Every structure is written in C-alpha cells, then in structure tokens.
Amino acid sequence: MAKRRLPKKLAAFLRKKRGDLTFQQFSRKTGISDSTLHRLEMADQNVTITTLEQLCDKFNCTIGELFECE
Question: Dihedral of the CA atoms 51, 65, 15, 32 (nearest 10)?
Fold first, then answer.
C-alpha cells in the first residue's frame, strides 16, 4: 500500500498557509470551496491539476513548493 506522501505534504502546506483562518475565509482567499480545502487538508481527496494551478497562482509558488512542507 502506498504511503500517500504527496497528499500529506500538500495537506501540511495548506494548513500552514491557512494559519488561523477558518475554512470559509481560506476558501474566499483561494477560490476553492471550503469542503474541498478541508478534504485536501485531511489528505482525503486527490487534487486536480486545475486546483494545483489555482493554489500556485494564489500563493505565487511552484507546484514543487506545494509539496515541500511536512
């Protein structure tokens, strides 16, 4: 069984970026629904290329940087 390292790294990135914001506040900031953000933070949902691009645009980072947190 795969360890699912990448979803966990993305989850850590999102938690760090969200900080003290609620999911609803973070949703408005990113343009991604709060339910999707919650599932991504829990590493319970696969991410799409479109969502990765959206996150990169909002946080001015590369796709690789999305997966550097742990």
Answer: -20
Report residues of the chain scoring pLDDT below 50.
Answer: 1
pLDDT of residue 4: 77
Give one DSSP letter per residue of 9-57, joined into a string: HHHHHHHHHHTT--HHHHHHHHTS-HHHHHHHHTT-SPPPHHHHHHHHH
Could you tell me which residues come within 8 angstroms of residue 64 by beta carbon, excluding any fewer than 6 positions away? none
Handedness of CA 21, 25, 27, 31 (dihedral sign): negative
d(CA 65, CA 28): 21
Residue with tokens 């590369």: 62
Place of tokens 């999911």: 23
Yes or no: say if 18 and 41 are a contact pair by the CB < 8 Å rule.
Answer: yes
